[in-house]
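$ fold --in a.seq
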Amino acid sequence: MAQLVWRNGLGSSLGDPLLTDKPLLQSGTTWFVSSTTGSDSNGGEDRDDPFATLGHANGVSSEDDIIVLLSGHTEVISSPVNVNNQGLSIVGEGSSGGVPTVHLSANQAAGCAININGEGVLIGNIKFLTNAQSNTKATVESVGRRTIVRGCYFEVTSTDTAGGLKFKTSESDPDFWEVRDTVFISTATSLVTRPPKALIAETTVHGLIEDTVFSGGTYGFSGNALSVSTTHVRFARVSLLLGADALLGDTGYISNPTATGSAVIAGLDD
C-alpha cells in the first residue's frame, strides 16, 4: 500500500502523539472533524475543510485511517459510533491544564458513545463527559482485540451505571487491551449521585493499566471504581485516590501503586 508522508506531522502542538510527532508516514487517510467549523458535506481530508461529526467520519473511514477531532470539538452522541475498521485511530487535538479540549458525551439509555469492534483501534486524548441520562452501557465499550486507550479523561456519575470504559469479549481467544496516562473521576455532587464504577474488564480479557488515575472526587463511588473480573491484567503506577477502590481478579502484578482516602485494593490472588 502506498504511504503518505506528512513532513510536518498533522500540525498540532498539543494533543495525542499522532498529532504532534513529525514526520508521519501513513498508509491510510486522515479525516478532520470540528463541531465549530465543520460540515458533514465537506471533504474532510483537510483541517480547513473538516466534517462536523465523528459518526460521519467513522462512516467514511477505512482500515488504518486516522480521525482527528480538532481542538474544541464538542459532540453529544445519540446513536453509538460503531468502530469496525481495524487499525483505526480516533485522536483529539488540544489540551488545557493537562485535560483534553475535545469533549464527547452520550445521550442514550442503552448505547455507548463509542462501540469498538475492530482490532487494533486507538482512542487518544479525548475527554468523555457524563451521560445525559441513565445508561446501561459504558461510554466506551470494546470487544475488539488490542484496543488502546491513552491520554483520555473520563467523568462518571450516577447516570453512568456501566462506568466510563468497559472491555469485554465474545471470542474464545482472550482479548488484549491497554489503558495508559488516563484519568477516571467521579463527578458526583451528592451521595445519591455517586457512580457505581469507572472501568470494568470482564472474563478472559487480558490487559495493561499504566500511569492511570482513579479518583473518587468529592463524594466517591458507590462500588469499586476499578473492577477486573477473573482476568490477567498488569498494573503499573496506578493511583487510587480519594477512596477509589479496586476489585481485582487473576492479576499478573501491581507495580508501585498509590492509594489515598482509605482506598482498598481487594481480591488480589495470594
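$ fold --in b.seq
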Amino acid sequence: MAKEGRDTNRFVAILVRNAKDNILMGFRNDDFKWGCPGGHLKVQEEYFSGAVRELKEETGLDATELKLINFTKVGKMLIYLIEAKIDPLQEIDPSGDPDKESSLWLFVDPNDVRDRLHIPLEKNVVLKHWME
C-alpha cells in the first residue's frame, strides 16, 4: 500500500561522492544489501526538494549543492538522478529516518559491494552514472 501523499510514479536517486570518488551508500535493514539515498517524491513535490528531503531523512545530511544529472523512464516510473554535494565535515545521522531502511551509511567504493546491491547494477542509475 502506498504511503499517503507519495507519488508512486516518480522517484529520486541521489549520488553523493567524497574526495576519493567513493559513494555514500546505506546498508539496508530489510535485505542486508547496499543502496544509495533516495525515495519516492511526494505528490506535486519538485525533484530538488524531494532530493533534499530524502537525503536529510535518510542520512541527516544537508545538501549544499544539487545538480540534475538525468532522468529516465522505467516502465511507468520516472527516475530523477540528482548529484548532491555536502559539507564533508557533517556527521551522518540516520536516526531521523521514518522508514528506518538503513542504520549504517558509509562512503564505499561500489566495486566492493557490486554483488550486494539492493538495486542490481543493470537497473541502478546511480552506479551506472558513477561507472561512466
